[in-house]
UniProtKB/TrEMBL annotation:
Residues 35-147, 160-310, 425-555 form the Plastocyanin-like domain. Keywords: Apoplast, Copper, Lignin degradation, Metal-binding, Oxidoreductase, Repeat, Secreted, Signal. Binds 4 Cu cations per monomer. One of its GO terms (biological process) is lignin catabolic process. The keyword Hydrolase does not apply. It catalyses: 4 hydroquinone + O2 = 4 benzosemiquinone + 2 H2O. This is Laccase. Pfam families: Cu-oxidase, Cu-oxidase_2, Cu-oxidase_3. It comes from Colocasia esculenta (Wild taro). Residues 1-20 form the signal peptide. PROSITE patterns: MULTICOPPER_OXIDASE1, MULTICOPPER_OXIDASE2. One of its GO terms (cellular component) is apoplast. Lignin degradation and detoxification of lignin-derived products.
Amino acid sequence: MGGLLLAFIALLLFPGVARAQETGITTRHYTFDVRLAKVTRLCHTKSIVTINGQFPGPRILAREGDHLVVKVVNHAQNNVTLHWHGVRQLRSGWADGPAYITQCPIQPGQTYVYNFTVVGQRGTLWWHAHASWLRSTLYGPIIILPKLGVPYPFAKPYKEVPIVFGEWWNTDTEAVISQALQTGGGPNVSDAYTINGLPGLFYNCSTRDTFKLKVKPGKTYLLRIVNAALNDDLFFGIAGHNLTVVEADAVYVKPFVTDIIMITPGQTTNVLLHTKPTFPNATFLMAARPYVTGLGTFDNSTTAGLLEYRSPGGSPSVSMKKLRLFKPSLPSLNDTAFVNNFTAKFRSLGSSQFPANVPQTVDRQFFFTVGLGASPCPGNQTCQGPNGTKFSAAVNNVSFAMPTTALLQAHFFGQSGGVYKPDFPSNPTHPFNYTGTPPNNTLVNNGTRVVVLPFNTSVELVMQDTSILGAESHPLHLHGFNFFIVGQGFGNFDPNKDPVAYNLVDPVERNTASVPVGGWVAVRFLADNPGVWFMHCHLEVHTSWGLKMAWVVLDGPLFNQKLLPPPADLPQC
C-alpha cells in the first residue's frame, strides 16, 4: 500500500513520468505545442510564438539518469527547432536541436519527438529555440535533480526558485533580424529586460508586471539563474543580501560569496540566498542590467524584481508599500575589472565524488580568432555597415555559411560532399596583432567548413578576441560537451608564456565561456561524443552574422562509442 501511495505522489509531482522496472530508468514525457499567444508587456499587446501558450515556456524537471521524451507539435507558421542547452546528448545528437546542424527544422504542421537521456549531469540547464531569433520567446529552465538519495554538496535549501532573465521587444524579433541582415547594419535593441518574463517596476506600465520572491526569515533559498537574453551579458544582485555561488552550467563549484554576479547569455548559475534571521521591516530590490563591451547600441535599462519577507506569523497585516525599499548597487556598464575578478573565482568542486577530469595532455591544439568583420555590399543596394559594407562575424576569418541540408545527416550517411568541407583552419591563415591596430582589410571569407576529430581526441582550444571593428567579449557555447577553462587573460595569447599559468587542477567546467574583451580564453575537452556539434557565440546577433562553426567527432571502435541511427520522424529539409 505504501508503494502505491509513493507512486501516486510521484505522478502528482512529476506529470508524464513512467518508470521501467527492468532498467530502473524513469522516462518523463512532455508535450510542447508551438503556437501563437497574445501577451502584453509595457502596455503593448502582440502575438508571440510560445510553448503551450506560456511566456516564458514551461520548466522541464528531471533527475540525473532520467530519459526525456519531448513531443514538439508545430502549430505556428515559423520553422522551429528546440535545443536542450548544456545537455551532453551522448550518442543522441539527433536530439540536440540547432537548425541545419543536427536536424532540419520542424515545419508548420509537423511533429518531432526529442528523445534523450540525462547522463552524469545534475543542476540547472535550459532549453530554447535554435532557429533564427525565435528564442526571444521560446525558452525555459531545465531543472535536473540529483539521483534519489544523493544529496547536494551543500546544505539542502528550504526552497528552489528559477530566475530566468530574458528580453522583451515590442516589435517582432524575426522582422528585427531580417531587416538587419538585409541592410547590413546593427539590429534594433530590445525594449526591456525581464525576470521570469516580467519587466519590473522601472519600466512603463510594468508595476504589476514585477516578479516577486516571497521569503521567510532564517531560511536558505537556491536560486537557479539562467541568462536567456539574446544579446546581453547581465549583472545581477539583491539589495542587502549576499549570494553564495555553488554551481555553474550544471557543474558544482567551490562555493564563494559575492553580492553581485555577472552571467552571459547561455550560462546558468546556482546561488544560495540566506535570508535575514528576523523580519527586517524592509523590502529589497533585485535588479539586472547589462555589462557592455562592444561599440554598438544596446538596451541601457534595468529589470527589477522584489524580495519580500513574509511578516511574522505569516500575517498580511504589514503593508509592503509602507516598508523601506533598498536598492542594490550594480557595477558600471563597462566594469571589466569586476567581471575579470568575478570570473576568476570559479573553481570546480574537485572532490572524489565530483572530480575535475581535465585533460592533462592534448592531442590537438587549436587557436581561433573570434570577432567582427565585414562583407561586401551587393552592387544594387546601399548598406548600413562599416564604410558602406555589411556587418559580419567570423571564427579564424571564416564566416559560417548555413547549409540547406543538416550537417549531421550528411555526415551520418556519408554524403558530406557539396554540404560541408572538412578543412576549417586550426589557426588564423593570416596572423596579425589581434588586439592592436586592426588590419586594413576587414572582409571575411564565407564557407561551411568543419573540424573533424577522431573519437576520444583530447583538445586544447584558445579563443582570441580581436579589435576588428572594436574589441568585444564573446560568450562561446559548445554543443555536446563540457570544457574546462584552464586559462584566460588580456591582450594577445602568448603560446610560450601563458600555458605555464594554466590551472590543470580544479578549473571550472562549463558549456559556455566568455572570451574577455580584448583578451583570450583557453579551454580543454575530450571529444568523447560522436556526432556533429555546433559552436557559436551566444550573442544572437553575432551568430546571425556568422560567428559559428562545427566539430565533427567520428565514431569510436566500440558499439557504445558510435552515434545512434536517426529517428524515423526526423524532419527533412
